[in-house]
Design brief:
This protein is mainly beta and about 80 residues long. It has one domain. Helix content is about 0%, strand content about 50%. The chain has no helices and 7 strands. Strand 3 and strand 4 form a beta hairpin. The protein is globular and about 25 Å long.
C-alpha cells in the first residue's frame, strides 16, 4: 500500500464494521499491529499469528464484546482479543 495524502485512519466504534485487505504487519512501540486498508482508509488492529496466512485477502472487521472479530470469504468468523 503506497502512502497517499487522502487516506483516513479508521477508529472502530461499537456496531461499526470496516472492510479492507490485510496489507502487512507493523512493529510499533506498543506492539505489533496489522494494517488493514482499502482505497480510502486504513485501520490498525492487534497482530495475531493466524492473521499472517490471510495477507492480501479481504477482511471485514467488526467490534465484539471482548475484542475484535473478522470475517473473510467463505463466511467463517474469527476473533482477536487481548
Amino acid at each position: 500500500m503506497t502512502p497517499a495524502k487522502d487516506i483516513l485512519v479508521v477508529s472502530l466504534t461499537q456496531r461499526q464494521s470496516f472492510e479492507g485487505r490485510f496489507e502487512r504487519r507493523i512493529d510499533l512501540a506498543q506492539g505489533r499491529m496489522s494494517l488493514i486498508g482499502n482505497e480510502k482508509a486504513f485501520a490498525l488492529v492487534p497482530w495475531r499469528r493466524d492473521l499472517e496466512r490471510l495477507r492480501g485477502q479481504s477482511l471485514v472487521l467488526e467490534p465484539k464484546a471482548k475484542g475484535l472479530g473478522w470475517t473473510f470469504p467463505g463466511g467463517r468468523t474469527r476473533g482477536i482479543s487481548r
